[in-house]
Amino acid sequence: MSTAFDRWAVLKRQAREGGGADRVAKHKASGRWTARERLEAFFDPGSFTEIDALVTHRVRAFGLDRREIPGDGVVTGWGDVDGRPVCAFAQDATVFGGALGEAHAQKIVKVMETAAKAGVPIVGLNDSGGARIQEGVMSLGGYGEVFYRNVGLSGVVPQLSLVLGPCAGGAVYSPALTDFVVMARGSAQMFITGPDVVRAVTGEEVSAEALGGADAHAATSGVSHFTAAGDAEAIQLARRLLSYWPLNNLEDPPGIAPVEPSGGPAEGLAKTVPEDPNSPYDVHAVIERVLDGSSWLESQPAWAPNLVVGFARLGGRPVGVVANQPAVLAGCLDIAASTKGARFVRFCDAFNLPLVTFVDVPGFLPGTVQEHGGIIRHGAKLLYAYAEATVPKLTVILRKAYGGAYDVMCSKHIGGDYNVAWPTAEIAVMGADGAVNILFRREIDQAPEAERAKVRAKLVAEYQAEFLNPYLAAARGYIDDVIDPKETRPALEKALHLLAPKREERPSKKHGNIPL
């Protein structure tokens, strides 16, 4: 009896020790926590249940028969986050550098399948050098099995990836398939091919941080959604994100007690938007005066900042927020912003998060770079996402809503449930200057040269007075009301209270074909 327990105790100790004291010390000297420390911080105290702690690889080649470490470089299991169940895995970089082999992959697959059965989120704490070379195609097959589960779980349970160390090759594709990615600045990198390969193939000199660091993926590639200062902040971000989401696609998001906005009195809302339609302003000032105080959590703030997206609460209910940002590119939609918005809208729709959209958009960004880059198909992604979404959709037009961008930004015509405008709204095909140049070109050209500027100014003023307002749209029922800005929050709360149980049937089909 004692021999059996002794063996059990040894194996359990080896699993806890990972790659051994020396490797653990070196790992921690780099500023990173161990896999187990990360899970302890992520889950509520005492709630973590580990599975497969004694799994080992079954490879004999390349000396691996002498390196069998219980757990095989990944810790898996489940626990509670704020009292709600969550499944997770944390890769252990002290064992084979966190590299994925067949057994390692099977552990991740098992906990992912457990998340599917239980209907709970799956969170990956990634710290891996990629495929375990000694295992060859078995490691590649293991990655394929993980990717397949990522796709199968998409839209079924929320998937969140924390990248907390260097991840290369196949190790970056699973995070890319998940809903959101959090990266730790300084310690985390993601790249398909590292600096050495880049140098050998292209001759380009680049550091790992410049190639695939947190800031590069936050601002340039858009791969990462949130940037943290280190492990502790990344884990707290993950816990906060989960607080907005339901456990699965069949549940509603968790509500809490309402909190008054923190951005200042509602009476000041009207002053946040300048009367001059060409004056920029920060749309965050509107968001913070309408939504629950301290509830705003912005996603991808450094990438495509001309469109703002994030999570917040309205009257205690979690919502997804999409807003044009007039402080950047005048709020125009471009390729990156369209892609950013479309992915966010689709996530919210998949997990029953109502959408609140604040509109101030002069159109799509013009130019050959955008046209040749595919703004037509990329812009269509956002249009498709909004039209496809069946969650409650609430839209407030703050100022400009011009051209096709008016339609795209959750207009009544593509399924908006409650669409209102401020008196400052301008709903038209284009601005007054452009419209007058087209509509009255002959009249302006025929005027005496000395009078042309005066004639043009008169026509612009007349066009602005007649067409650049929300009342023609209101008369057609394209918006439900023109409201006083200070009534924005109560109006949205009432609409959300009514529409929260909304159910919308769509034609039966395998799936749509979103523009790519």
Summed up:
The protein has helices at 2-17, 21-29, 35-42, 102-118, 137-153, 173-177, 195-202, 208-212, 214-221, 231-242, 269-272, 284-290, 335-350, 368-373, 375-388, 403-408, 432-439, 441-446, 452-467, 471-475, 488-499; strands at residues 49-51, 74-81, 84-91, 122-126, 159-163, 166-168, 180-184, 189-191, 226-228, 297-299, 307-314, 317-324, 355-361, 393-402, 418-421, 426-428, 481-482. It is an alpha/beta fold.
Structure overview:
- The chain is an alpha/beta fold and 516 residues long.
- The chain folds into three domains: 2-242, 2-enoyl-CoA Hydratase, Chain A, domain 1 (Alpha-Beta Complex); 266-430 and 469-499, Alpha-Beta Complex (2-enoyl-CoA Hydratase, Chain A, domain 1), CATH 3.90.226; 432-467, no CATH class.
- The protein contains 21 helices and 17 strands.
- The protein has helices at 2-17, 21-29, 35-42, 102-118, 137-153, 173-177, 195-202, 208-212, 214-221, 231-242, 269-272, 284-290, 335-350, 368-373, 375-388, 403-408, 432-439, 441-446, 452-467, 471-475, 488-499; strands at residues 49-51, 74-81, 84-91, 122-126, 159-163, 166-168, 180-184, 189-191, 226-228, 297-299, 307-314, 317-324, 355-361, 393-402, 418-421, 426-428, 481-482.
- A hairpin with a 2-residue loop joins β11 and β12.
- The longest helix is centred in the first third of the chain and has 17 residues, at 102-118.
